[in-house]
Write a structure and sequence with these properties.
Elements: H1 4-22, H2 25-28, H3 38-55, H4 60-78, H5 83-109, H6 119-135
Helix pairs in contact: 1-3, 1-6, 3-4, 4-5, 5-6
Length: about 140
Amino acid sequence: MINDHSLLNILMVLFSVRIVNAYPESFYHDKKSPDNKKYPAWILYILFQYWVMASGAVYPLVVLGGNIISVSLIYKTSYLITRRGALFLSGILYALWMLTEVIVSNLLCLTAIEDSSYFFTVGSVVSKLAVYVIIQ
């Protein structure tokens, strides 16, 4: 049975997929790769993102490294760009994303809310919305 928290995790993973997919469109919309190597990369990214959301991102450097590597793989297999270009795009995206998460986390800590158990979920939703607005 799926509970509310699992449903929110799935929705956040889908929103992350949308963000990762929308970011390179502004640079490489005419350079899409015709092969199907991108689908395993997307599956890997989706499974990794679900693990991150379900675990509460307890290892931030593993999360950052895993995101940069998996998104670089997606960009390399989805667009006709070099490995270096894919790594650069994913590095810039996740540097912006982590900066947004730090800002949102600090703003949440400034609130007078005693129960901080929902800060990860609220911060994740707000930071994903902010990054989506920034890259559009």
